[in-house]
Amino acid sequence: MGKKYNTVLGMVNEISEDKDFNKSLEKEIKGRQISKTLFSMRCKRGLTQSQLAEKAHFSQGKISKIEKSFDTDLTMKDLAAYCSALNMRI
């Protein structure tokens, strides 16, 4: 059996010799912590993007964009509506 890694970044750092790529990937992963958490919360509730979009009064495309966004690109209005649709407060 192969080696197990705790994170994708840990695996890439060990197998990749391209330090610029490794730094770029680390920045990409760390810059999307909120959006990854939102995606995870939606999935844990068993909702599709379309179902959440209906609850948040967004389009499915807007939900997709939020879940792919860099954290710095998210607005408080979008976060509040997304979380409200999941019966959560921020």
Describe the structure.
With 90 residues, the protein is an all-alpha fold. The protein is built from six helices and no strands. The longest helix has 12 residues, at 19-30. It is elongated and about 45 Å long. The mean pLDDT is 93.
Please supply descriptive tags for the structure shown above.
90 residues, mainly alpha, 6 helices
Topology summary:
Layout: H1 8-15, H2 19-30, H3 33-44, H4 49-56, H5 60-68, H6 76-85
Helix pairs in contact: 4-5, 4-6
Task: Give a brief description.
With 90 residues, the protein is mostly helical. It is 66% helix and 0% strand. Helix 4 (49-56) crosses helix 5 (60-68) and helix 4 packs across helix 6.
Radius of gyration: 16 Å
Please bin the fraction of helical residues: 55-70%
**SS strand fraction:** under 5%
The biggest beta sheet is recorded as: none
The overall pLDDT average reads 93
In total, the number of strands is 0
Uncertain spans, ≥5 residues at pLDDT below 50? none
**Which structural class do the helices and strands define?**
mainly alpha
Distance between the termini: 42 Å
Number of helices: 6
The geometry reads as elongated
Give the helices and strands as they follow along the chain: HHHHHH
